[in-house]
Each structure stands twice: as C-alpha cells, then as structure tokens.
DNA sequence: CACGCAGGTGTACGGCGTACACCTGGCGGT
DNA sequence: ACCGCCAGGTGTACGCCGTACACCTGCGTG
C-alpha cells in the first residue's frame, strides 16, 4: 500500500527531510491540515516513524520555524543601520509571504530556538553597530515586535465578499450605517486602487509605512541621546 | 451523577451564561484546557447541551472575545485625541492582563464579530474627531496593529530559569558567548531592576514606550498634513 | 557468524469536536 | 381537560488527533 512504485527503496528519512516535508505540506494544504499522520503519509511512512526524528509535534513546529528563519537574507555588510535593518525586515517579510502559515506558527512557539535567538541577536547587533545604546536597542526591539519577522498583527483578513452583487450592496449600506468610520476608510482605499468595495488595502504599503515610522522615531531618539533614565 | 445537590433545579443555560462560564474556565485552567466537554462539566451539563446555545467551538471563542471587549472602558468624552486613544488602549491592556489567554484568542479569530468592529470603528472615530484625514487614520490604525488591543507580540515569554544556580551560571555564560547582544540587554535590564538574571523586563514600560513613540509619530505626520499621495 | 542498534511498524489509548436521534417537561390553544 | 409543540437537555457514536509501547528488520561492526 505504502511501498514505493519504483523498485528503489525510499531514501531513509532524517530530521531535515522531515522538516522540509512539513514545510512543503503546510505550504500546500495549510497549517491546520498538517498532522503527524498526514505528514507521514506524504513521506511514504507510518506515523510513528516520524518520532525517530522529532520528539513530538511541538518540536516539529520549532524545526519548521528554523527552516523559515534560514530563508531570511543575512545582513548586508557595510550598510547604514537604518537601511540595513529595513532590508533585513523586508527580506523576512518576503519569506513570510511565501509561507503564509509561518507567522501564526512563530507566534505560537512558547520558547525561541537557538536559530531564532541567532536571528534576534544579529538584529540587535545591527542597532548596536549603528551606535545605539544597549538601553535604546532593547526598547526599540520591543517596539518593532512582530515586525522583526516581517508581519504585522492583522486586524482581520480580507473579508470574502458575497458573490451576489445585490447582497454586496445591502451589506455595504449596513456597514456604512453601523461602522461609518470603517466604511469611509474602505471607500477611500477602494477608490485609491480603483477596485471593488471591500478589496483589502495595500499590505506592503501599510507594512512599510509602519516600519518607516518606527525607524524614523528610533533615529530621532538616537540622535537626542535618549535614555530610559528619563522615563516620564 | 450530574444532578444538583440542592433540591432546586439548575437555572437553564443561555448563551451568556455559557460564554461567561467559558471565560471563567479559561481564566482558571488556561485556554488550552478549555474544551467543550470540560466546559459542559463545569456547567453541570452534558457536552452536547452547549450546542443549543453556540453553534460550535469557533463561535464560542468569538463570544468569549466579545465578553472581553465589553470589559474595555468606553472612550472618555471630551479628551484630546492623543490622551483619549492612549487611555483607551491602556484600558484594553488592563483587561487583557486579567485574561492572559485573550490575546492569543483574538489573534486566532479569522473574522471580526460586530462587537469587535464596533470597537475598531470607535477607535478610528477618535482619530477622525482629532482631525485626522481618513487616509492617515487608516494607516495609523494599521501601524498600531495589535496594540489597539493592549498587547504586543511577545518575542518570547519570560524563560523559566533552572533552579540550580550552578546551571544558571553555566547557561548565562553560554548565552553571553553565543548571543552577546541579547546577553548585554539581559544584564542591563537585570541591573536596572536589581533582580536576577533572566528576569523579564518591565512590560508596562515597554508597552508605553512603543505606544508613545507611535502616537508621537502620528502627531508629527498629522501636523505636517501627511497624505499617502506622497508615497516615496 | 553473532550482536547491536538505527530506523520503520502495528496496535492501542485517551482526548477532541460534533452529527444525529432521542427524550422530557411545561405552555398555549382548543 | 386534553393534546401537541418545541426549547432545552441527553446518549451514543464517528472520525480525527497526538503519541506510548512493544515489536520487527536489516545493515555494519566485532
């Protein structure tokens, strides 16, 4: 049933093959359909075989995160801190857009792996190399929050509009009556992009807007010699 | 087995009682131990009885979010936009600190409920009342991201130190060697608070640092008459 | 040739969400 | 006084999940 079609025996599994298989499967069928049983089947193996290579599902998820982090570009060497950080974050973002499930998985990990710590450490290092005090670098990392990973907390994903244009119209009027401020944003955004109502806004622009606002704020504090001692 | 000890029959369930029971149970035993079966038992009822009041577990979670949002203070009427927004967000934060599971649940909802939309709408309204253009209000909401809910993406929770102080020492040296930038932050933070190594930093301060940096940035853009037309 | 051990297997358990058929007690209409 | 309805609660069962544990198998080494 599970055996190979071609005569050659399946190459033996190893941790890396398992992790990459898991990433691929999550990419294809969604993270919510990634189960040990599922993954085992995909790899042509019985579920329990996986446990020879990962301790349990949590460790599998940790390993998947490590694979993803490995896809992020390394820091550009001689760059100014601001452009360097920006590039790195936007590289992370590109990776996360390739693996839409990854942000949720990253958020769900209770402890960082060494690979993740390496990434964060090198990020802090870029601020330090730019002359930031330990103090400021610290708070600035907190402020970036999930954006060091290239994603922002989505307030909600693009709403799937009803196909029927009459229902669309009705829904729109209800929105406008009940949530006028949200509605006018939706209208403006739709107009900007000459697209249908409800089309979600330009994600990339929103992301860069936020990152740049933050980086500019950081720069200002840095130049002012900000210290956490002047906590008001 | 399940019947009441006192002669009086259990008051009949209703949606509200189910939701509040679920919130209480999550508070007590943690969200990961909240199951339909568990909750039913707590309410003195058979699991399937819950389905007369909520369609499924997803709707239960939606309802729990609504309960939490209901605990956030309403906007202070005559306040300046900046202090008004700040107060509201810090109120949300207080609520979320009472229900530590709530941030993860909010993040996990695929669609916002009407109650959530009301909250977001009123938040946008505060920016609009402060003179923000629709355009700027829009992007500014995105920038706040999960902070409108009073939480920030945690890079990782406080690490539980090993009890043995020798192991602590060893771990610390390994950290310092491998992740020097992270280590120096840890040292500085520990020194600030005269606490043990690894003690997590002052969360409230980090949060307010970020919110204030953002609000200041928003104010600057607002005063400059910023428009998304000048997208560089 | 025997042995060990890494890698793969089979079976089983307890937990989950929930579909579906059923029961029951009180209330409104006649 | 009776009947029928139906909201609310029950019982059973299914298919999924993660994974403990005992087992097998075949290769590399002594």
Summed up:
With 232 residues, the first copy, chain A, is mainly alpha-helical. Chain A has ten helices and no strands.
List keywords for this structure.
DNA-binding; 232 residues; mainly alpha; homodimer
Distance between the termini of chain A: 69 Å
Order of helices and strands of chain A: HHHHHHHHHH
Q: Count the beta strands of chain A.
A: 0
Assess the beta-strand content of chain A as a share of residues.
Answer: under 5%
Oligomer: homodimer
For the biggest sheet of chain A, the summary is: none
What average pLDDT do the residues of chain A reach?
A: 89
Contiguous low-pLDDT stretches of chain A (5 residues minimum) are: 1-7
Q: Largest interface, by Cβ-Cβ below 8 angstroms: which chains and how many residues each?
A: A-B, 57 and 57 residues
């Amino acid at each position: 049933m599970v055996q190979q079609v071609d005569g050659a025996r399946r190459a033996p599994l190893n941790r890396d093959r398992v992790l990459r298989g898991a990433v691929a499967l999550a990419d294809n069928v969604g993270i919510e359909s990634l189960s040990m049983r599922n993954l085992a089947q995909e790899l042509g193996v019985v579920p329990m075989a996986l446990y020879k290579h990962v301790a349990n599902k949590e460790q599998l998820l940790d390993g998947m995160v490590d694979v993803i982090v490995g896809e992020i570009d390394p820091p550009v060497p001689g760059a100014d801190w601001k452009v360097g950080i920006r590039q790195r974050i936007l590289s992370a973002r590109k990776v996360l857009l390739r693996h839409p499930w990854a942000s949720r998985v990253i958020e769900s990990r209770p402890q960082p792996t060494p690979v993740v710590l390496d990434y964060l450490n090198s990020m802090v290092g870029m601020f330090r190399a730019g002359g930031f005090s330990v103090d400021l670098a610290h708070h600035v990392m907190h402020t970036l929050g999930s954006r060091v990973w290239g994603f922002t907390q989505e307030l909600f994903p693009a709403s799937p509009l009803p196909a029927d244009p009459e229902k669309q119209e009705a829904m729109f009027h209800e929105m406008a009556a009940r949530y006028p401020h949200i509605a006018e944003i939706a209208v403006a955004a739709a107009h900007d992009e000459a697209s249908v109502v409800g089309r979600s806004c330009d994600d990339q622009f929103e992301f860069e807007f936020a990152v740049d606002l933050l980086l500019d704020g950081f720069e200002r504090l840095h130049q002012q010699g900000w210290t956490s001692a002047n906590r008001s």
